[in-house]
Amino acid sequence: MGAFLDKPKMEKHNAHGEGNGLRYGLSSMQGWRVEMEDAHTAVVGLPHGLDTWSFFAVYDGHAGSQVAKYCCEHLLEHITSNPDFRGGNQEPSVDSVKSGIRTGFLQIDEHMRAMSEKKHGADRSGSTAVGVMVSPRHIYFINCGDSRGLLSRSGKVHFFTQDHKPSNPLEKERIQNAGGSVMIQRVNGSLAVSRALGDFDYKCVHGKGPTEQLVSPEPEVFEIERSEPNDEFIVLACDGIWDVMANEELCDFVRSRLEVTDDLEKVCNEIVDTCLYKGSRDNMSVVLVCFPGAPKVSPEAVKKEAELDKYLESRVEEIIKKQGEEGVPDLVHVMRTLTTESIPNLPPGGELASKRSVIEAVYNKLNPYRSEDTVSMASYLWCSVSRVAG
């Protein structure tokens, strides 16, 4: 398929920061796709006097990156500067925040449509958006499309957004009322999401308002009262993450990583790498926002992690030596062998895929004949094994 590369691009974009009692880290990786179409926003301290508020979002573009890039730069301003957001108050009320977020989405969508029509060729790209606005008292989850956000509280998934898929009953009803159909779980057999910014080819049904079109730019907004110290962390990620990890799996994995490192960029990098080796073929972006109640580094967990790494290193060495005169086995053979074994203390949710860097490192050290081609091919072998093992 032309949409994929011969081998994944694993270089990552990272960022981190802190403020307002929050710490955040993020990671994005192109992966197998021919183009990187994701974008993200992370702002601690909002404009217009909302210094104690913060905003984070992930945008998953499709058919191009233009809409995702524009939204990451301008969506927040469209939200916070419109009159509905303020509602006439210095400190916005819950209702005015929710109304202002909705208005901001509709405004930026109409603005991008007008810009597209002024150009010689209309922009056919679109983007999902998932985000959170964190005030001193509330968390506002914002979702438009099939990216997803979740909140971990008291050691479990407390809340997660619902994906907007064409096959969802209410989404399907809107699509059919606009004269469209849902085929192979896609809008008119083509687009896999039923809400998105951009995608103007699906927003031109005469006599229908902007939220009644085949594809709607209207976000769902949910407010949750903050609970200190029970709130742990928020994860925002595109569907390239959720395609291979369930909500509980990802929460368990993040929690286990926070017990061995306080480097949030590193945790996010482990998430995208693990998802790649679990078989994700999409762009991958994740933002991790930690509250003061997030898990802390535990000496016991660090010790167990070190023991696990040492055990895996010794097992790889044993597997290679066992071949003897037959020569060094390829990496896929090593992986297949390890997947048949019961290995204690693997990270929950990530399992063996999350330890690929440890295994590859010792494999490469013990294989003096490896070439650059061998190393790059190892990425494909890992994905193959992960899909078979899963």
UniProtKB/TrEMBL annotation:
It holds the Pfam family PP2C_C. SMART domains: PP2Cc. One of its GO terms (molecular function) is manganese ion binding. Keywords: Cytoplasm, Hydrolase, Lipoprotein, Magnesium, Manganese, Membrane, Metal-binding, Myristate, Nucleus, Phosphoprotein, Protein phosphatase. Its cofactor is Mg(2+); Mn(2+). It is found in: Cytoplasm, Cytosol; Membrane; Nucleus. Monomer. Interacts with SMAD2; the interaction dephosphorylates SMAD2 in its C-terminal SXS motif resulting in disruption of the SMAD2/SMAD4 complex, SMAD2 nuclear export and termination of the TGF-beta-mediated signaling. Interacts with SMAD2; the interaction dephosphorylates SMAD2 in its C-terminal SXS motif resulting in disruption of the SMAD2/SMAD4 complex, SMAD2 nuclear export and termination of the TGF-beta-mediated signaling. Interacts with the phosphorylated form of IKBKB/IKKB. This is Protein phosphatase 1A. It comes from Scleropages formosus (Asian bonytongue). The gene is PPM1A.
